[in-house]
């Protein structure tokens, strides 16, 4: 049933060994022959940490799906328990200056492409989805999540601040007072809590069911004129998109300044150390 499987092996050179997760592409795109819906799968073990390479592949895959005139995009993960662990903290901890710039710029590109995508988008959240993972999920139009996982913007727990456009995605889904409290608390919602609060739309008991529910959502537009639908979506999202587009350079500057603060570096170091300790126990 797959019209095409785009999963090329593109060799990559990078000078920083700790960022070299794989020489292969970190995303795959599969287009269903019958529905015309593209499934975009993140595949960067162990936790789909969003580093420069995964973000670059995500950006290229989204572009490819738009160019292919797919009927819709479903974002998911090849990991059975993690959708995405969010930004790869190693990109921000003791960072290389030029790489840090490319990393943030590519994250901005991914958000602009996904939040502003012309095609209907849905996330099959088949695992934990903190911070940047939640950003990706809330940039989609519909979310289906598997039970007993967590999702949320936990930045304050790391001693960092979610940028305005992270908040825009969150606010496009949650009521303002829920979003404000959750952001301030760095709250991670369980699947049940996420459903109760509207952070996700449905719960599914397996990845297959989640993908099917996402496809059903995308199919709900089958009788709607695609151009009218995409222009409507883009108008509704235009203010947030233009805000970042017009302030990309300042946003990058703020991020670089903030990340390089000694207190932020110290906090990230402690957070990483705790993660590593936890994974060894
Ligand atoms: C006003 C000015 C504003 C300007 C803007 C300024 C700043 C904004 C900046 C940043 C915004 C950042 C958003 C983010 O996304 S930060 C990342 C947040 N992510 C997390 O907190 C998740 C942390 N991870 C976990 O909770 C768990 O790992 C998880 C539940 C995802 C999975 O648990 P599991 O038990 O399966 O796996 P672990 O054993 O914990 O992990 C395996 C392995 O992976 C490493 N790791 C996990 N997450 C990350 C990560 N996000 N980055 C890097 N590395 C990660 C973990 O350390 C283990 O490594 P190892 O010990 O096996 O080497």
Automatic annotation (TrEMBL):
Catalytic activity field: (3Z)-octenoyl-CoA = (2E)-octenoyl-CoA; (3Z)-decenoyl-CoA = (2E)-decenoyl-CoA; (2E)-tetradecenoyl-CoA = (3Z)-tetradecenoyl-CoA; (3Z)-dodecenoyl-CoA = (2E)-dodecenoyl-CoA
Superkingdom of the organism of origin: Eukaryota
Functional pathway: Lipid metabolism; fatty acid beta-oxidation
UniProt-listed InterPro entries: ClpP/crotonase-like_dom_sf, Enoyl-CoA_hydra/iso
GO terms (BP aspect): fatty acid beta-oxidation
GO molecular function: delta(3)-delta(2)-enoyl-CoA isomerase activity
Subcellular localization(s) per the UniProt record: Mitochondrion matrix
Gene Ontology CC terms, in alphabetical order: mitochondrial matrix
Keyword flag Transit peptide: yes
Keywords: Acetylation, Fatty acid metabolism, Isomerase, Lipid metabolism, Mitochondrion, Transit peptide
Chief place where the protein resides: mitochondrion
Subunit (UniProt): Homotrimer.
Protein function: Key enzyme of fatty acid beta-oxidation. Able to isomerize both 3-cis (3Z) and 3-trans (3E) double bonds into the 2-trans (2E) form in a range of enoyl-CoA species, with a preference for (3Z)-enoyl-CoAs over (3E)-enoyl-CoAs. The catalytic efficiency of this enzyme is not affected by the fatty acyl chain length.
Record-given protein name: Enoyl-CoA delta isomerase 1, mitochondrial
Organism: Drosophila busckii
Taxonomic lineage of the native organism: Eukaryota, Metazoa, Ecdysozoa, Arthropoda, Hexapoda
């Amino acid at each position: 049933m797959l019209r095409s499987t785009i999963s090329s092996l593109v060799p990559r050179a990078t000078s920083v060994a700790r960022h070299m997760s794989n020489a292969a592409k970190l995303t795959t795109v599969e287009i269903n022959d019958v529905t015309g819906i593209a499934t975009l799968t993140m595949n960067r073990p162990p936790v789909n940490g969003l580093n420069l390479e995964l973000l670059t592949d995500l950006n290229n895959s989204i572009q490819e799906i738009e160019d292919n005139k797919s009927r819709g995009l479903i974002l998911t993960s090849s990991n059975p328990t993690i959708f995405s662990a969010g930004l790869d903290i190693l990109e921000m901890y003791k960072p290389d200056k030029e790489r840090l710039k490319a990393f943030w710029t590519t994250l901005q590109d991914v958000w602009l492409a996904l939040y502003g995508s012309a095609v209907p988008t849905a996330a099959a959240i088949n695992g934990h989805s903190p911070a940047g993972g939640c950003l990706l999920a809330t940039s989609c139009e519909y979310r289906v999540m598997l039970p007993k996982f967590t999702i949320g913007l936990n930045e304050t727990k790391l001693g960092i601040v979610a940028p305005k456009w992270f908040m825009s995605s969150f606010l496009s889904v949650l009521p303002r007072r829920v979003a404000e409290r959750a952001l301030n608390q760095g709250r991670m919602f369980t699947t049940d809590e996420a459903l109760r609060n509207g952070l996700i739309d449905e719960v599914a008991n397996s990845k297959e069911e989640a993908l099917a529910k996402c496809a059903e959502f995308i199919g709900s537009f089958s009788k709607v004129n695609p151009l009218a639908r995409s222009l409507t979506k883009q108008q509704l999202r235009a203010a947030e998109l233009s805000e970042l587009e017009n302030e990309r350079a300042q946003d990058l500057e703020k991020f670089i300044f903030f990340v390089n603060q000694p207190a932020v570096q110290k906090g990230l170091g402690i957070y990483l150390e705790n993660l590593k300790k936890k994974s060894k126990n």
